[in-house]
Amino acid sequence: MSMKKILCIVGARPNFMKIAPIMRAFREQAPEIEAKLVHTGQHYDYAMNEAFFQQLEIPAPDISLEVGSGSHAQQTAEIMKRFEAVVDAEQPDCVLVVGDVNSTIACALVAAKKGVKVVHVEAGLRSRDRSMPEEINRILTDQLSDRLYVTEREAVANLRAEGVAEHRVVFAGNVMIDTLMHNLPRAVPAERTIAEACARAKSLRSAATFLESDHGYAVLTLHRPSNVDDHVVLGRLLAVLEDHCYKLPLVFPVHPRTQVKIREAGYSRFLENPQVLALPPIGYLEMLGLMKGARVVLTDSGGLQEETTALGIPCLTLRENTERPITITEGTNILVGTDTLSIAKELGRVMTHIDVQMNRPELWDGCAAIRIVKDIQRAL
Fold it and tell me: Are 202 and 278 in contact, with CB atoms under 8 Å apart?
């Protein structure tokens, strides 16, 4: 039997955590499949890409498209133009895409139009909010895919409602949790990350502020346009967080775009508050250590909702909806939106209640990638 070829697509940092266990499973479980890694370059920060690839033990990309930034339309179109040439040259049996970024839909669309089978890992998630570009990417990618691997049973119901044939859908578990469990023993201790950051900071901050607080510390991430592009919403969020940071100091890895928006809106004082430790973007192992040691995580990220559930850390999601409802029904996640009263109430609650009631969701066991690769073996 001739060797089969599959092109595995990554484009942005959320993809890296999902592709790492899949590439490892192909190497260890399916030597008869040639799995090539294609990096579109949607996130093009060289230093950050290198750090994530090294920490997650992802092999260097076989093919790099280097598309860079642009509007959603420009970026998607440029990925399609460059990826089409790759498909023509490589003649793959299958294209595997993960998540919901522009690279996901762009490469799925090229493959589908060329008659190449499409596999979607993390299919069926829905926020019901079509103002989110990611929601459009999810819906369209799922309609194009021949094999859809889902992380939770509700995703199966979502796909059924959209007319996706059940024989195309496989409940495989969550590859993000594979990555978390594989790397947890290697997580950089929060004490080290915080101490090094405080030593570099030219301010009144001290590591003791964050490590010896009565309530511990909180981790904050903000990047969604709905939160950072609207000066009123951004100001409201920063104000309620500043009100609470004297009891619960904040460790804030700041997305570069978020930092620009904070300064443009005139809220630089938030980043200079001695109770707020603003960090440059950090590696996966550093972030894992910070989350593991945190009292609570406040975020508008999708992946952090899953990771905090797996770690048993309370998560307050600063969004009006989530495509990961299982993190609420079975996990540690609470949807607080941008309402200051809700945020204040839940921050007060997590500071007074240490115990967290949660169950690890079904098949979030560290073996999702192996199940996916074995199913692909059978399908090919």
Answer: no
- pTM for the structure as a whole: 0.94
pLDDT in tens, 329-367: 999 999 999 999 999 999 999 988 766 666 789 999 999
In DSSP terms, 219 is beta-bridged to: 251, 297
Distance between CA 60 and CA 81 in Å, rounded?
22
Cα 375 off chain centre by? 24
Q: Where are the alpha helices (DSSP H) in the chain?
A: 13-29, 46-55, 72-90, 102-113, 133-144, 153-161, 175-183, 190-200, 207-211, 225-228, 231-244, 256-264, 268-272, 284-293, 303-311, 326-329, 340-352, 368-379
3-class secondary-structure state, position 250: strand
Identified catalytic residue from 223, 231, 244, 255:
223
Residue linked to tokens 């997650």: 56
Query: Among all chains, which residue has been given the structure tokens 């004297």?
Result: 246
Whether 39 sits among the annotated catalytic residues: the reply is no
Structure tokens belonging to residue 57: 């033990």
Query: Residue 324: helix, strand or coil by DSSP?
Result: coil
* Buried/exposed code over 328-356 (b: 16+ C-beta within 10 A; e: otherwise): bebbbbbbbbbeeebbeebbeebbeeeeb
Say which amino acid occupies 326: I
Cα separation, 105 vs 70, whole angstroms: 16
Locate 268 and state its tokens: 């630089």
Residues 16, 27 contacting (CB under 8 angstroms): no
Number of H helices, E strands in the chain: 18, 13
List pLDDT tens digits, range 172-199. 999 999 999 999 999 999 999 999 999 9
Q: Which helix (H) or strand (E) holds 248?
A: none
